[in-house]
Amino acid sequence: MFGRHPRHGRGTIGRMTVAFVLGGGGVRGAVHVGMLQALLEAGIRPDLVVGTSIGAINGAAVAAEPELPVVDRLVEAWSSSVANEVYGEPWYRQLGRLARSRTHLYDPAALRRVIAGTLGAHTTFEDLRVPLAVVAASIERASEHWFDTGPLVDAVLASASVPGALPPTEIGGEHFVDGGMVNSIPLGEAVRRGATTVYVLQVGRVEEPLTAPTRPADVARVSFEIARRHRYFRELDEARQTATVHVLPSGGALPGDERLGAFRRLDSTHRRIAQSLASAREYLASPAHDDAERAP
């Protein structure tokens, strides 16, 4: 299905230079599609792709096909009726599943179908044209786990298994949940794997200022954002000591972005992609991009 790349353990990854890092972010993950289009139009292609959660799904697609046609495939995937099933069940079915499982609202089979339909049900990491690494959170080890070899669909599903929404994904007797719990924008991993130029495809949350909470609902949101962002900002500072890092702009948030559901609000998908495409094109054509490339 896809051209093969040489087996890529940590010992060989140092040959790589350009990395695409795709962060998590649920419904906002559609911005990745516009950013990818802008990068590929500009002739920028990755030697390595690193992803978390929805970024693992989009990242796996571009690792399989690092050419412009992948944009159409991703738009189709984001807009499909199958994608709408992921978080589109009626509320009474959600409550029924929660009552039975006591842990989650949605059926992971729908997300598995989206991933398999986009990537191929039997694809492995070794089948991809570009090396890919995706992160998930191990429950038993309470730590991040990186997948970069073997079956692809299970690993990507594990990285996107949002706690409470979906059950943990079991692989080899170990249970994994969403990679965003431990590494929401895995910039540091790309540098550790040898990247010297990194394009960060983030969904926009890190662009938004945080303020002290004034309502009960704000307490959880602000606390979660601090937990998400502190590692990224530290890794950003560290990465800039050894690599050129480009953080692509998202184009801004849309109303309702804080709601759970990576695929449900399909009415906003095309607008989100268009915004991020315009913003990424502007950045790539700007002096800021050129100056960063020339910096020692």
For the biggest sheet, the summary is:
8 strands, mixed
What structural class should be given to the helix and strand makeup? alpha/beta
Whole-angstrom Rg: 18 Å
The 3D shape can be described as globular
Helical content (DSSP H or I, runs of 4+): 40-55%
- Unreliable stretches: 1-14
Note the run of SSEs as H and E.
EHEHHHHHEEHEEHEHEHH
Q: What's the tally of helices?
A: 11
- Beta-strand percentage range: 5-15%
What is the tally of beta strands? 8
In short:
The chain has 296 residues and is an alpha/beta fold. The chain has eleven helices and eight strands. The chain is globular.
Give a written overview of the molecule:
The protein is an alpha/beta fold. Helix content is 42%, strand content 13%. The protein has helices at residues 31-41, 54-64, 69-79, 81-86, 91-101, 108-119, 152-159, 187-192, 216-239, 269-284, 287-294, and strands spanning 18-22, 48-52, 132-138, 143-147, 169-171, 174-177, 197-201, 244-248. Strands 1, 2, 3, 4, 5, 6, 7 and 8 form an eight-stranded mixed sheet that branches. A hairpin with a 2-residue loop joins strand 5 (169-171) and strand 6 (174-177). Helix 1 (31-41) runs parallel beside helix 10. The radius of gyration is 18 Å and the shape is globular. The model is unreliable at 1-14 (pLDDT under 50).
